[in-house]
């Protein structure tokens, strides 16, 4: 086993993938605009993330669990994602996803990309239908930061050896705690407080920052 050289944690929606998964679910529920407006406000930091998430999940009540199979083909990796992941793996990094989205899609993305860690939210399902409620702890900004610290410690890494990439207010604590914190096509509140910014939809720019 070669020594782990670094850890990269990434947000999923509008970072690893181009879409907001919950907005796609909302559209299937016929409430696309309503859900998207709450998402936008939460990502700007205008709404409490947990309250906004519960509000949106409540709107999904009654959708079949199979909805995740239906929306998965509508998720598109951000350009450069595969190349960045392959290069960082070659450099001895471990890579994790920390998402305010849902395990049903995030686990599948992580498996497809052969990633090391996943933390996401769980939806309650009864008799094959979404109940409009969440199970367990919510992945808040505090949880994202805690995962960065936990997984760094597990790999005997200092936080200076970590990288965090995200776009929304829920990513801010993680971005500030990482050795290299990157605002990726981010909301103003994140751009203003991150050490590094990427303003093009290309994740290979992460490598450019690391190579400076």
What features would you highlight for this structure?
212 residues; alpha/beta; Rossmann fold; 7 strands; 42% helix; metal-binding; amino-acid biosynthesis
Give a quick summary of the entry:
The protein has 212 residues and is of the alpha/beta class. Helices cover 42% and strands 21% of the residues.
Q: Alpha-carbon distance between the termini?
A: 28 Å
Helical content stands at 40-55%
Topology-level CATH name: Rossmann fold
Indicate the radius of gyration in whole angstroms: 17 Å
Gross morphology: globular
Query: Spans of 5+ residues with little confidence (pLDDT < 50)?
Result: none
Please give the count of helices. 10
Largest sheet: 7 strands, mixed
Sheet-strand content, in percent, reads 15-25%
Describe the protein in words.
The chain is an alpha/beta fold and 212 residues long. It has one domain (6-210): HAD superfamily/HAD-like (Rossmann fold, 3-Layer(aba) Sandwich). It has helices at 21-28, 32-44, 49-59, 67-71, 81-90, 103-113, 141-154, 172-177, 188-191, 205-210; strands at residues 6-10, 93-102, 117-126, 129-135, 162-166, 180-184, 196-198. A hairpin with a 2-residue loop joins strand 3 and strand 4. The longest helix is centred in the last third of the chain and has 14 residues, at 141-154. The two termini are 28 Å apart.
């Amino acid at each position: 086993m070669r020594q782990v050289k670094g850890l990269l944690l990434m947000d999923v929606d509008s970072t690893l993938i181009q879409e907001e998964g919950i907005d796609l679910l909302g559209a299937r529920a016929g409430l696309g605009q309503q859900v998207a407006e709450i998402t936008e406000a939460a990502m700007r930091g205008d709404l409490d993330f947990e309250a906004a998430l519960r509000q949106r999940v409540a709107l999904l009540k009654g959708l079949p669990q199979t909805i995740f199979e239906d929306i998965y083909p509508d998720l598109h990796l951000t350009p450069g994602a595969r190349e960045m992941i392959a290069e960082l793996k070659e450099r001895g990094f471990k890579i994790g996803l920390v998402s305010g989205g849902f395990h049903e899609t995030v686990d599948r993305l992580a498996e497809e990309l052969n990633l090391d860690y996943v933390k996401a939210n769980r939806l309650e399902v009864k008799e094959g239908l979404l109940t409009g409620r969440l199970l367990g702890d919510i992945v808040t900004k505090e949880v994202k930061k805690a995962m960065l610290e936990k997984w760094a410690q597990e790999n005997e890494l200092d936080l200076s050896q970590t990288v965090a990439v995200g776009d929304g207010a829920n990513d801010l604590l993680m971005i500030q705690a990482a050795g290299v914190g990157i605002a990726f096509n981010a909301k103003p509140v994140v751009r203003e407080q991150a050490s590094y910014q990427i303003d093009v939809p290309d994740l290979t720019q992460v490598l450019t920052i690391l190579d400076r």
